[in-house]
């Protein structure tokens, strides 16, 4: 599986960014309140059974998901991120390297989870992405995601209305990435139009989460 769609330079640069930032990922934590609220919501949701984690990154959420999951498959396009996740949790999870915009799940799961990924999905790929999730869910399967709307002014190289931002490594190297500024009510409505029954909740800070099912 290729790392990215070669026809989309922005998505290729987004993958390159996450490959480059893997070793310093935790040093770029989002400021503000709300993280504890999100963790409590995930624990209450209960990601049990066979779980699929998309864009697993360095395994921070992977480790938490394994507390309740029977089995866990974690997917990411960055081999550097996958190496960090595997070092964190060992062989308790199955790790797959794949481009999420071209990947087809090889089985169905009770839960699909993704942390800090939905904002990196371009709006013109939003429907296709959620179709992939629907195909990955077993009957009665559930979805949980968490993300943020944090976009500091220095990242908005194309203006506040653009979904493209520029981020920098600690050494100053710049990379462009997708960062859609979803608002919880609008995101919930958009998902409803696609046949999803997902409640999207905004925390007191920049974070939001969604939990629900597909209305088959």
What order do the helices and strands come in, and which of them pair?
Elements: H1 9-21, H2 35-45, E1 49-54, H3 60-65, E2 69-76, H4 79-89, E3 94-97, E4 109-115, H5 126-136, E5 137-148, E6 164-168, E7 174-178, H6 184-193, E8 196-202, E9 207-214
Parallel strand pairs: 1-2, 1-4, 2-3, 4-5
Antiparallel strand pairs: 5-9, 6-7, 8-9
Provide a quick synopsis of the model.
The chain has 216 residues and is of the alpha/beta class. It has helices at residues 9-21, 35-45, 60-65, 79-89, 126-136, 184-193; strands at residues 49-54, 69-76, 94-97, 109-115, 137-148, 164-168, 174-178, 196-202, 207-214.
Mean of residue pLDDT values: 94
Number of domains: 1
Strand content: 25-35%
CATH topology: Rossmann fold
Question: Could you please describe the fold and organization of this structure?
Answer:
The chain has 216 residues and is α/β, with parallel strands linked by helices. The protein has one domain (9-149, 183-214): 3-Layer(aba) Sandwich (Rossmann fold). Helix content is 29%, strand content 29%. It is built from six helices and nine strands, in the order ααβαβαββαβββαββ. The longest helix has 13 residues, at 9-21. The two termini are 30 Å apart. The model has no long low-confidence stretch (mean pLDDT 94).
